[in-house]
Design brief:
Blueprint lengths: L1 E3 L6 H8 L11 E2 L2 E2 H7 L1 H5 L2 E4 L13 H13 L3 H14 L16 H13 L5 E5 L7 H18 L2 E5 L3 H7 L2 E6 L2 E7 H6 L4 H8 L39 H5 L5 E4 L2 E3 L8
């Protein structure tokens, strides 16, 4: 699943809430029919054996004082309680999974490039043998050529290991390639949700349409992006009605007075817009 939206809309905050790095001010998060608070208080190791995080900045997320062996062994020791005799073999398997050479196991994070460091971050997450991986802008800090390599690696791992990704990005082209479902966020709320095909081929929210208009499409000439006017409202003081209405090219008086609910418009395709039939 991909989560998209402009900076400050709440994507990373949502990821941190899922990873218990922040506490919610209201509402609940459920995983396998259990409230996240249950795992936090009673079974946190079980939770982190199933859900792992890959950070945006690979270098800052790796302990500079530890070798790659020690970094990979940490989740094995703390989460899986892997026997010491099995750790070395597993470390080498993880390096192979992310296409890194076995001799890298004795090196330190500062000896690696950004792309290599992100591969190590992915290997560290895989060391816990999770079902779900939360990836917060995992390629945004990398060169374009390296981005493609990491995305292809993630696709390969998803197919080989049966992983589920919660993939946060502002790059819709990457989301389209990697994700099966997409949620579009604006000012802290999901305004559209559906399969990748539904959202990209038939958007039902004006904000989604604006985002999609910014994607370059080879062979299409004379197609201009939709330019939004103004800045996003203050999340601490949102406007009355639809939060997107001050910038929306379809907004009317109803939009400025009433808040649209997220409703299903077609086979799991949901939107929070009064004008979805006109799009």
């Amino acid at each position: 699943m991909g989560v998209v939206g402009e900076s400050g809309c709440g994507k990373s905050t949502l990821a941190k809430l899922i990873m218990t790095l922040e506490e919610p001010s209201s509402g609940n998060i459920f995983f396998k029919n259990k409230n996240l608070e249950f795992y936090r208080k009673n079974d946190v190791l079980s939770y982190f054996s199933q859900v792992q995080f890959v950070f945006q900045d690979p270098l800052s997320s790796l302990n500079p004082r530890k070798t790659i062996r020690q970094i990979l062994q940490t989740p094995m020791k703390k989460i899986l309680k892997t026997p010491k005799k099995d750790m070395e073999k597993r470390c080498l398997e993880l390096l192979e999974l992310v296409n890194l050479r076995p001799e890298f196991i004795n090196r330190y994070p500062h000896e690696f490039s950004g792309g290599q460091s992100q591969r190590i971050g992915i290997a560290r997450a895989l060391a816990a043998e999770p079902e779900v991986m939360i990836l917060d802008e995992p390629v945004s800090a990398l060169d374009v050529s390296i981005q493609a390599q990491i995305i292809n690696l993630l696709i390969d791992l998803k197919n080989r290991l049966g992983l589920t990704y919660f993939f946060i990005s502002h790059d819709l082209a990457v989301v389209e390639k990697l994700c099966d479902r997409v949620a579009v966020m604006y000012l802290g709320k999901i305004v559209e949700y559906g399969t990748t095909e539904q959202v990209f081929d038939s958007p039902k929210h004006p904000y989604t349409k604006v985002l999609l208009s910014s994607i370059p499409k080879p062979g299409e000439k004379g197609v201009s992006s939709i330019i939004l006017e103004g800045e996003p409202p203050d999340p601490a003081n949102p406007p009355k009605g639809c939060s997107f209405s001050p910038r929306c090219f379809m907004a009317n008086s109803k939009c400025k007075q009433q808040t649209p609910e997220l409703i299903e418009v077609n086979d799991m395709h949901k939107t929070a817009c009064f004008h979805y039939k006109e799009l």
